[in-house]
Amino acid sequence: MTPRVLAYSRTTGFRHESIPAGVAALEAFDDFAVVATEDPAVLTAGELSAFAAVVFLSTSGATCGGPQGRAALEDFVRGGGGFVGVHAASTSERDWPFFGDLVGARFDRHPEVQPARVLVADADHPATAHLPATWERTDEWYDFHARPDPSVRVLLRVDERSYSGGSMGADHPLAWCHDRLGGRSFYTALGHTVASYSEPALLGHLRGGLQWVTSRTTPTHT
After folding, report:
1. Per-residue model confidence as pLDDT tens digits over 134-180
2. Rounded Cα–Cα distance for residues 210 and 109 (Å)
3. Radius of gyration in angstroms for the set of CA atoms belonging to the chain, rounded to a whole number
4. Non-local CB neighbours of 184 within 8 Å, separated by 6+ positions
């Protein structure tokens, strides 16, 4: 039984050139049946009921298409559906409080793309168990308006001493998860560059996040 996953990448703000590479990477995961779209018409109760999880892949702006799409996504999550937010998902739906709670933190700013050290804060999770304690890679390092709620499980942090332009200090989270709203939610700020989606470690990080959010959901594809 293979979980069905909706890869959703609609943008009404900044559009990342890495989106096609990200979609292709998700579609290559042989332990998930991935359906990719940018059509907000898929955000209905009937359509979403066929999926175990929804991935917001570098979405931006008012991505849900209006109140009906918002309501359908909220009902899906509150009913136990899984959610994964990748990179720019934290820039989406800024005036919708539920979405801010779902993602866990709102994007604020970033310096230029550059190498940095990622620190594993919690190695006991499918998204991080394969990673070294210190993971050196190049990406766009997001600052957030505030850190996630203390009830959220932080998985990765970035060491601000290892790059220029960070403004959150020693406690600078990059990836986290929670199940406060019904279904499980996983967010990672990683994945800005096209090259990210050919990195085995990053792909393992995404796959592990998907495995976690779908591990207690029921819609499947046979």
Report:
1. 999 999 999 999 999 999 999 999 999 999 999 999 999 999 999 99
2. 26
3. 16
4. 82, 83, 177, 178, 212, 213, 215, 216, 217
Q: Which of 155, 137, 130 is nearest to 193 (CA)?
A: 137
pLDDT of res. 177: 98
84 secondary structure, DSSP code: E
H/E element, 115? strand 114-120
Helices first, then strands: H and E counts in the chain: 5, 12
For residue 1, what pLDDT is reported?
83
Burial degree of 146 (CB within 10 A; 0-12, 13-18, 19+)? exposed
214: helix, strand or coil: helix
Which residues pair with residue 119 across a beta bridge?
A: 134, 157
130: CB partners within 8 A, 6+ apart? 201, 204, 205, 208
- Report pLDDT digits (tens) over 23-75: 999 999 999 999 999 999 999 999 999 999 999 999 999 999 999 999 999 99
* Residue 49 contacts residue 94 (beta carbons within 8 Å): no
32, 109 contact by CB (below 8 A): no
CB 73 within 8 A of CB 54: yes
Tokens of 57: 């892949």
Return the pLDDT at 217: 53
The pTM (predicted TM-score) of the whole model is 0.96
